[in-house]
Design a protein that fits this description.
Layout (H helix, E strand, L loop, with lengths): L11 E8 L4 E5 L4 E15 L2 E5 L3 E5 L5 E16 L12 E4 L2 H11 L10 H13 L8 E3 L4 H11 L8 H8 L3 H12 L3 H18 L4 H7 L5 H12 L3 H4 L5
Antiparallel strand pairs: 1-6, 2-6, 3-4, 3-5, 3-6, 4-8, 5-7
Helix pairs in contact: 1-2, 4-5, 6-7
Length: 253
C-alpha cells in the first residue's frame, strides 16, 4: 500500500493492480488523495461514513487522511491514482462514486504507463495536468450504504443486511426496535439522512452488484436480495446503475 507515511513528490502517481476474489486490505489511510477506477470485478470500500461499492466503469474518490478498508468481489482489475491534495484548490473534500468519462479513462491508462520521473514541460506532465483538470469536474453520486453510529440502529442494519432476501418492511424494523413505524423513520433520517426504504434499496442494489461480479445469474442475484421478479430487479438495477444486470456482467443470464 502506497503513500501511508511517505510523501508524493509530483502531482499524480498512477498504478495498475490486480486483486483476487476475497482479498482484503485492512484499514489504512494515505497522505495523498486517492482515485480508484475499476475495469473489472467489484471493490467494497469501508470508511467511517459507511460502505461504498465500486462497479466497473465507475471510480471512487477518497480524500487524503480518510481511513478505509478494501474487499475484492470477483477478480478485480483496478487502476489507482494518488494525488497531491493541494495540486488543485477545488478537488473534492468528500468520498464519492463517479462515472469515469472516456477521456479520463484513457488518461488514467496512459498515466499507469509512466515509469520515469516526470520532466517539466514533457508530454507526461501534460497528461497528469489534464487528469487534474478533469477531476475538477467530478460529479459525485450516491452509491454508498451509510452505517449508523448508534449501536441499536447499527445492529438492526446488520441484521437486515444479513438477510436481504427477506421482504423487510418498516413495521418489521419497528417491531425489532420495539418502537413505532414513525420513530423508525425519524431515527433513520436523523442518523443517516435517508428513509428506511432508500437505505434498504441501496443495500440490496450494492449486494446484488457483488453477487453478479462473483458469478450469480440475474435470477439468483434478484432472489438473493429480496426480488421475486427478475424483471422488477432489472428495472431497478438499470435505473440506478445505468445498465441492465446482463450488461453489467455480460456472462450472466
Amino acid at each position: 500500500m502506497y503513500f501511508q507515511n511517505d510523501i508524493l513528490f509530483q502531482p499524480v502517481a498512477a498504478f495498475a493492480h490486480h486483486y483476487e476474489h476475497g482479498v482484503e486490505e485492512p484499514y489504512h489511510s494515505h497522505t495523498t488523495a486517492q482515485l480508484l477506477h475499476i475495469t473489472s470485478g467489484v471493490l467494497r470500500i469501508y470508511t467511517q461514513c459507511g460502505c461504498w461499492i465500486i462497479p466497473p466503469t465507475r471510480g471512487l474518490w477518497i480524500p487524503a487522511g480518510i481511513s478505509h478498508k478494501v474487499q475484492a468481489c470477483g477478480a478485480v482489475e483496478v487502476r489507482t491514482l494518488f494525488l497531491d491534495p493541494l495540486a488543485r484548490a477545488d478537488l473534492p473534500n468528500d468520498c464519492g462514486i463517479f462515472q469515469v468519462s472516456a477521456l479520463l479513462r484513457e488518461l488514467i491508462i496512459r498515466a499507469t504507463e509512466i515509469t520515469d520521473d516526470v520532466q517539466k514541460g514533457s508530454k507526461e506532465e501534460r497528461i497528469l495536468e489534464l487528469i487534474l483538470d478533469e477531476l475538477r469536474c467530478l460529479s459525485l453520486i450516491d452509491f454508498n450504504v451509510p452505517l449508523p453510529k448508534n449501536k441499536e440502529l447499527f445492529d438492526l442494519c446488520e441484521r437486515i443486511g444479513s438477510r436481504l432476501e427477506h421482504p423487510w418492511s418498516l413495521t418489521d424494523a419497528a417491531v425489532i426496535l420495539n418502537v413505532s413505524d414513525r420513530t423508525v423513520s425519524r431515527k433513520f433520517h436523523q442518523a443517516l439522512g435517508l428513509s428506511f426504504g432508500e437505505w434498504l434499496r441501496r443495500s440490496r442494489l450494492l449486494k446484488s452488484m457483488e453477487l453478479l461480479a462473483v458469478g450469480y445469474s440475474v435470477l439468483d442475484a434478484a432472489l438473493a436480495v429480496g426480488y421475486d421478479s427478475p424483471g422488477a430487479f432489472s428495472t431497478m438495477f438499470k435505473r440506478r446503475v445505468g445498465v441492465s444486470p446482463a450488461e453489467y456482467v455480460p456472462n450472466t443470464i
